[in-house]
Amino acid sequence: MSKEDEKKAVALGKSEMEKRLAALRHQTFDELAALPDHKTDNFKSGKYEVKVTTYRDNLDDDVLQVAVQWYFRIRLGFGQIGADGFTITRENVVRDMEEKALYEFM
Questions:
Q1: What is the DSSP string of 27-95?
Q2: Are the CB atoms for 53 and 31 separated by under 8 Å?
Q3: Higher-confidence residue: 77 or 40?
Q4: Which of these, 11, 65, 75, 91, is most buried using a 10 Å CB contact count?
């Protein structure tokens, strides 16, 4: 597996994450609250299987945190990972997740 294959897998993971986040950002608090705690979809990029997982956490009764993580394994515990996300209030105010909060997903 070449560096070019890795680059393509990273690009696929980032692209799927960005598409998913864009769609999720258009949903309301109530729609997002109805999502499962997590959901994983698998995508093929050459010989790599790229996993894209959406996480929904209740930070409290009035705030949800939504994160999307992409990951693929290269070999024996080595891989590539990335994540991004946002919070949304019951009043549908959306804010990007702070970098420190994203560490949990990377």
A1: S-HHHHHTS-SEEEEEEEETTEEEEEEEEEEEEETTEEEEEEEEEEEEETTEEEEEEEEEEEETT--EE
A2: no
A3: 40
A4: 65
Query: What residue spans of the chain are helical by DSSP H?
Result: 3-25, 29-33, 99-102
CA distance 102 to 86: 10
Q: Give me the residues paired with residue 23 across strands.
A: none
Q: pTM of the prediction?
A: 0.92
Contact 104, 37 (CB under 8 A): no
Distance CA 85, CA 69 (A): 9
- How far the first Cα of the chain sits from its last, in Å, is 23
In this predicted structure, the answer to whether residue 27 has a pLDDT above a threshold of 90 is yes
Tell me the three state secondary structure of residue 41. strand
The 10 Å Cβ neighbour count of residue 85 is 24
